[in-house]
Amino acid sequence: MVTLISVTTTFRVNFSFQINIISLFLFLLIFSNTNSFSSSKLIVTELNNDVFVLDIYGKRFNLKNSDEIKSGDFLKTNNLPASFILKNKTKICLSANSSLKITTLDLIKENYEITFQFRSGDLYLSIPINSIDRHNIKFFNYSIKNSKNDLVLSKSSELELINYRNSFNLFFKDKKNKKVPPLTYLKLSKGGKIINSSKIMNSDDIKKKFLVGCINKISKDKLKNNSRELQYGCITQSGKLVCGNRYK
Hints:
Elements: H1 2-39, E1 42-48, E2 52-54, E3 60-62, E4 68-69, E5 74-76, E6 82-86, E7 91-94, E8 99-108, E9 111-126, E10 134-139, E11 142-144, E12 150-155, E13 159-163, E14 168-172, E15 177-180, E16 184-188, E17 194-199, H2 203-214, H3 220-225, E18 230-237, E19 240-247
Parallel strand pairs: 9-10
Antiparallel strand pairs: 1-4, 1-6, 2-3, 2-5, 5-8, 6-7, 7-9, 8-9, 9-12, 10-11, 11-14, 12-13, 13-16, 14-15, 16-17, 18-19
């Protein structure tokens, strides 16, 4: 009888020890996954004008400073252009009535990999030259992988691209690619063909005109009061994309 009691007690102690080990393992696993999930978000450090967000859970809200962008976030502007800067110094600028989706956002070995999907309107994207993060851009039947560029994408009646800084490979849906040198303007078809390609001669003028509409120094209240007169738009002049605010 003493031996039976001893064996039973030993079994209970071992079983309890195993339960504690399993509980500790599950706690560490959940804690690790929670940290990994929270660190795979990028914080907005600066915001100008309204950016509206629809996340993958169907929640709608206005983007604010210190908010986090996540995989699946759909971003859009309405009647005013807007810009925001992420924690990794990447700057995103959307003209009025433009939209962009965060397709994926992952943290890989302490570096972010983020994939943007440009949908409509005008987008100015500035990625720091010394960025350690990987930025991919998808738009219709095209993609740019690991971009370290300043570029403009425009989609109204036509799909247009302006590259400012570094050369990059533009990938097509059929896996072909084209090397795009700095200071290049491209007019593209939605189906994946280059309609027109030219060298930009006065890139500063085009960039400044776009930024006037994108990062506006006029207060938001003043813009709202003049919304019927001051309108943002893009036109093509001599094969070049010119964007900015105009009184109409």
